[in-house]
Amino acid sequence: MSHTYSTGRTRANQTRPNGTSGARPTDSSLRNHKATPETSAQDRMVRVDGAFTVIPPDAKKRDAIQRAAKKEEENYDKFKARSKKVYNEVGTPGGGLLEKPKPSPASSNLSNRNYLRLKREEYRSAVKKEESKKLEDMKQIQRNKALVNKETEKQRQKRLESDRRRKNEAFLNKLENKEPAEYGKNLHYHNKDS
């Protein structure tokens, strides 16, 4: 046995506290409905237009929210103005600046480039000077060797010349000292038939 409890009213028949029924309005009733000041409570009802549900805003709530937002924004602006930091620049006694102003990044970049270029040029010139010095040293060594070789060659030529002269004189002396008869002994012919 099943017990069902019923209040006697169906959902479609229930009335809301504002006096409207709980049933949804039909499309035809929405089309025929005209907005009038007396029906503002009915305007607040949820409307179904085809596939969309339209929920109209409550004007009183919207105005209250906008007033509160405006008040909060004004309070925030006042707070920002109150808590804004104030920077006081204190001048130096005597009026001038003690520190040089810092250069801008573009000028520091340019000065860095110039500095690096000068450093590279200095390095290249130092390397070039070192190489030219080594080359000059090697040339001087070769010149000295050439002079030494030339001097040794001169001395060798002198020795050879004196040796050749001595041998020539010895040979000529030997020829002068020999008798003419001795020349004839060496010159006679032998006859093989005899």
TrEMBL record:
Residues 1-115, 128-194 are annotated as: Disordered. Signal peptide: none annotated. Residues 58-80, 128-140, 148-182 have a biased composition (Basic and acidic residues). Residues 1-29, 105-114 have a biased composition (Polar residues). InterPro entries: EPSTI1. PANTHER family: EPITHELIAL-STROMAL INTERACTION PROTEIN 1. This is DgyrCDS4391. It comes from Dimorphilus gyrociliatus.
